[in-house]
Amino acid sequence: MGVDIRVENLNAWYGSTQSLWDVNLHMPANHATALIGPSGCGKSTFVRCLNRMHETNPIARAEGVVSMGGLDIYKDASPVEVRRRVGMVFQRPNPFPTMSIYDNVASGLKLNGFRKKRVLDEVVERSLKQAALWDEVKDDLKKKSGASLSGGQQQRLCIARALAVDPEVLLMDEPASALDPVSTAKIEDLIFKLKSSYTIVIVTHNMQQAARVAENTGFFLTGKLVEFAPTTKIFTNPSDKRTEDYITGRFG
Amino acid sequence: MGGNARQYGEGALMPQLPARSANWERFIAIRRSATNNSVTLITILSTVLVLVPLVAILGYLLYKGFSSLNLAFFTHVPAPVGEEGGGMANAIVGSGVILALASAMGIPFGIGAGVYLAEYGAGSKLASGIRFTADVLNGVPSIVMGIAAYALIVAKQQHFSGFAGSVALAIMMVPTVTRTTEEMLATVPHAVREAALGLGIPKWRTILSVSLRTASPGIITGCMLAFARVAGETAPLLFTALGNQFFGVNLNEPMAALPLQIYTYAVSPYDEWHRLAWAGALVLIVMIMVSVSLVRIFANRGMLKGGS
User: Fold this and answer.
1) Looking at this predicted complex, what is its ipTM?
2) pLDDT at site B302
3) In what order do the strands lie in the sheet containing A169-173?
4) Contacts of A98 in chain B (CB under 8 A)
5) With an 8 Å Cβ cutoff, is B301 touching chain A?
């Protein structure tokens, strides 16, 4: 089951450049939250702070409180523990090129030392079904490489891989921006189904996408969270002038 | 050109090129295909030029060496001066043992250093020091490696040994293996590493099971290059393994090796020994080709269809 995410006074830097300024927000459990904003506004940095991927860049650092279901992920957990509980799907599909479809999905468990074949089989099947990919790949799970699938299938494979470790939160950084409209629709359907069991945070440049999948939407601008509100309110009656300018296409 | 004007109409957005006569256009077309053909011809000629000495050497080796090859060559040790027959069984086995030990020592150290350079030390002073040292080491004449191993091991132990030869060859392998490992790891997309870290896989495991595995075809090629290079080295073995006229697999004693045996026989005044030297050279090349191919076949097994 998903957990809620509470962010308090989050600041982030790349070297001496500050890219996030005092972000505060609360994302409820088992809901989808969309983050919108122009390129370079800090929304990707923000999601990368939620699973501590931000700090894999040697010059990057973050300060503030991020708590998930009450657990302060910067104080009470190691980065590796955090990432096991917070799955991530990236902008470009990134399956492991040398691994089969099966091994790609099982990698999170296998590479952490889990070896029980019967359980792995079950997890792989469940995750691929959750990612709506099972029917397309079930006949060559171990024969084909993950890199041999189409772009849209690869992205669903990456979602299955993230789900296989049974996370509580799923972060998606523009998961459909490199995909065609058909694959995009499949991913959106998927988000819709998945949010009953996971807390989903999705970064998107596509405002219709935000409106379709998310209950809440946050608007970022130059590293600051300008507005965070129910999606319908953001798109019909935003309280900040800058949000209105952005969603009506007056800048950005 | 003319076609553009027809296609887009007068005053359309396409820039208008000055009109050319039909003869001019034909001239340009002929000139283009002439340039294309001559450049293609140059590349073919260069390929032939590169292949000619290679094929000539192999062919001459086959011609000279094959006639002297017989079962005794593989089963007998060298015959004393003045006696007919004899073989290089001791040198073939000696080369195999020395090279196996050299690979077992050189390849892991080389890969380890390459992993450090690519994954941990990026940008650090230590890393640029190691990189510089590796490049210098790569250019050091092989005889210097032999002297180094002599000073480090032979002089200390007061006797020549196959082990000392292995160490000299291992040191020669390290720079090539290190640099290829580093370069191949650098070609692994950052996104693949991020995928692994994002799944909560620790960094060491990510490097071992994802980065190295993705880069493995290139790393294996690098190891094979290093192996093939040292397999034919004579100079580093002169002061270390020394050579041995008798059969033995004790690494603590002077040991025979094919390049040494070929050298000894080739500079000798006897026709019989010259023939054996040719046969030895042929066997050495075939040994290198077979081991490199075997590793390739072995490494390609289990590769998946459709992967990149």
Assistant:
1) 0.88
2) 59
3) A86-89, A169-173, A199-203, A32-36, A216-221, A224-230
4) 213-214, 216, 303-304, 307
5) no
Q: Specify whether B224 is located in the same domain as B164.
A: yes
DSSP string, B7-31: HH-TT-SSPPPPP--HHHHHHHHHH
Confirm whether B191 is domain-assigned: yes
B141 and B45 together in one domain: no
Put simply, the answer to whether A143 touches B216 (Cβ < 8 Å) is no
Across the interface, whether the CB atoms of B307 and A165 are under 8 A apart is answered no
Architecture per CATH, A5-93+167-247? 3-Layer(aba) Sandwich (3.40)
The CATH code of the domain that includes B121 is: 1.10.3720.10
B308–A161 C-beta distance less than 8 A: no
Cβ contacts of A80 within 8 Å, gap of 6 or more: B200, B201, B202
Of B192, B205, B303, the CB nearest to A96: B192
Q: What is the pLDDT of residues A213-236, one digit of tens each?
A: 999 999 999 999 999 999 999 999
Check if B195 contacts A (Cβ < 8 Å).
yes
| Dist. CA B262–CA B231, nearest whole Å | 13
Q: pLDDT tens across A124-148, in order?
A: 999 999 888 999 998 988 888 988 9
Evaluate whether residue B42 is within a structural domain.
yes
Which residues of chain B fall short of a pLDDT of 50? 1-5, 305-308
What is the domain extent for residue B176? 71-300
> Per residue in A193-220, pLDDT tens?
888 899 999 999 888 899 999 999 999 9
In a domain, residue B178? The reply is yes
At which of B23, B42, B66 does a domain end? B66
Rounded CA-CA distance A163/A109 in Å is 11
